[in-house]
Amino acid sequence: MSSIDREYYILKREDSDVPTRLEGFHETRERDYRKVPCAPDSPPLAFFNGARRDNRQQGIAALPEPRAVMFDGKNLLVRKPIRDSLLERGVSRLHAHPAWYVHDDKSLHDDYWYLGFSEKFDCWDRELSDHESEDDEEEAAVYTFILDQQLMARTPLNERLLFVMGGCYSPPLVCHESVLPLFLGQGRSGLQAIVLPEA
């Protein structure tokens, strides 16, 4: 393991006593937005907490404010300041579209952006990482990630600030330490960050 491995964090959904499961309204579910960028002039995507009914039935009180970051698979719903900061840094392989979120109390929050990843970044070292696969064609199950030092050194920082790991089964969302405060500094962020060698 080198120092660069400790510069990266795996972002995961926060283990919470108030579950949040991002779910699109009907018009949003009809659109192919997860992997393909939405047309710039198309309407905002619209979401709500799909766990709201279950929470209510179990007597779980709603959060006073929606989370600053919510997961949709490996994609994210984030507040506008987070999106703006990521775009200022030139994060690559990322597409963004305006979004609305209807909170559990039915209040509308229109300052969100949906962030999707158009491709993955395969940058883990096959020799040093702890992994297994049945054959070379199959995506590997990776138990411990060690980054490919040479690939990372020749890749511009903006292309490795925030990415979905490629070449593996159940790929994680990975974040560089320089942008981590964007996600953790917005109140109840809705995520947890685990340094890569310990994930």
How would you describe what is shown here?
The chain is an alpha+beta fold and 199 residues long. The protein has one domain. It is 15% helix and 31% strand. The chain has 5 helices and 12 strands. β4 (69-72) and β5 (75-79) form a beta hairpin. The chain is globular. The mean pLDDT is 91.
Give me a quick take on this structure:
By secondary structure, the chain is of the alpha+beta class.
Observed structural traits:
199 residues, alpha+beta, 6-stranded mixed sheet, 4-stranded antiparallel sheet, 5 helices, 12 strands
Average pLDDT number: 91
* Low-confidence parts: none
**Major beta sheet summary:** 6 strands, mixed
Class per helix and strand makeup: alpha+beta
Please write out the topology.
Layout: E1 8-13, E2 22-24, H1 26-29, E3 45-49, H2 52-57, E4 69-72, E5 75-79, H3 80-88, E6 94-102, E7 108-117, E8 130-132, E9 141-144, H4 149-154, E10 162-164, E11 173-176, H5 180-184, E12 191-195
Parallel strand pairs: 3-6
Antiparallel strand pairs: 1-11, 1-12, 2-3, 4-5, 5-7, 6-7, 8-9, 10-11
